[in-house]
Amino acid sequence: MRIETADKNDLDALCAIEAEAFDENSFALSQQNFLYHIKKNPIFICKINGTAAGYILLLQHKKSANLRIYSIAVKKEFRSHGAGLALLEKSFAYAKSIGKKGIKLEVNIFNTRAINLYEKSGFIKKGIIPNYYPDDAPAAIMEKIF
Ligand SMILES: CC(C)(COP(=O)(O)OP(=O)(O)OC[C@H]1O[C@@H](n2cnc3c(N)ncnc32)[C@H](O)[C@@H]1OP(=O)(O)O)[C@@H](O)C(=O)NCCC(=O)NCCS
Fold first, then answer.
1. Share of the chain above pLDDT 90, in %
2. Residue 109 in contact with ligand 1 by CB distance below 6 A
């Protein structure tokens, strides 16, 4: 398993991961969105035997003490093999390297699989945002302080 910084050559692979992981109720990113973020923000891609298995997109606002995980996804065939955890750990290392004090994210409160992984990785629920998703599902705000 290798974690690399994504570049333009990874666009098709990122879109394929996205299409499988998210639907219209989950703010799925388009190819244009990925192109924008590849230029502006860190996207790390996890490759297993050379195949793109998953990615994590991070947002860094200068004024915020925390890095934000905007999106994380792993292809179904590669799930439960530690790719999600490896991408999270890469984001912790990156956040520390740029002087952030912690990392935060929003997650659908019904996304038990993701929430379990975040809690195992040291995230704590800090609040709820009602009607966050297009289908009105609430989001949990989760944060990990280093
Ligand atoms: C959430 C998501 C990114 C997790 O990715 P993943 O690669 O399956 O994550 P991991 O393999 O690191 O961990 C998942 C589980 O597998 C377990 N696991 C990890 N390595 C394992 C291994 N070698 N053998 C068995 N189980 C393992 C982990 O302990 C974890 O268990 P838990 O769910 O009980 O905590 C993935 O399910 C996904 O893409 N979901 C759809 C998109 C999504 O919901 N993204 C989050 C939006 S906020």
1. 95
2. no
Note the pLDDT of residue 86: 98
Query: How far lies 47's CA from each of 8, 84, 102, in Å?
Result: 15, 12, 26
Domain count, the chain: 1
CATH number for position 126: 3.40.630.30
Average pLDDT, the chain: 96
Q: Write the residue with the smallest CA distance to atom 28 of ligand 1.
A: 80
- Look up the pTM and report it: 0.95
The pair of structure tokens assigned to 5 is 């910084």
For residue 18, the surrounding DSSP H or E stretch is helix 11-21
Altogether, the residues listed in the chain come to a count of: 146
Domain that holds residue 17: 2-145
> Which ligand 1 atom is nearest residue 105's CA?
48
CA-118 nearest atom, ligand 1 = 35
Taking residues 113-138, report their average pLDDT: 96
pLDDT of residue 4: 97
